[in-house]
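Hi Y.,

Following your request, here is the sequence exactly as I used it, all 162 residues.
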Amino acid sequence: MTTEPIPDHLDLYQHPGHLLRRAQQISVALFYDELGTELTPVQYAILSRLAEHPGIDQVSLAGLAAIDTSTGATVCVRLEEKGLLERKVIPHNRRQRALTITPAGVRLLAELEAGAQRLRDRLLAPLAPAERRKFMALLTKLVDGNNAQSRVPLASPGTGDG
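Below is the corresponding structure, written out as tokens. Let me know if you'd prefer a different format.
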């Protein structure tokens, strides 16, 4: 009995979505290897974006990290419980909270910086330097070009929308 080769359109490893999912699995595993378990990847994303946008509200911060607002709110509560950020009611809009990173949050991000660089290096290690630049450019183009199709599109800084 001979088996026919699987046509490319049926081969799971010829589907970009499957390969992107596998790359995400690998990225998360390497994240914990290099940065430890103090933060999850989403907590790291929120905290690092907050460091760049102090005083931002939770909804806008979630948009900058490309996560849904309910997840963003939950992550902010966890980070506040860890003493890494502060949430304060915005006087002119009592339904929103303004966020600031605490000194402990700043210290933690600084401590994780070397691990974040090692993570990047390990993820891209199979590629030659020119391939790394091209891969990052193409990956950015793919993500930017499909942003509107995301369940949670990345928001532009200062706009609060996608």
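The helical segments are 16-35, 41-52, 58-65, 69-81, 103-124, 129-146.

Thanks again,
Q.
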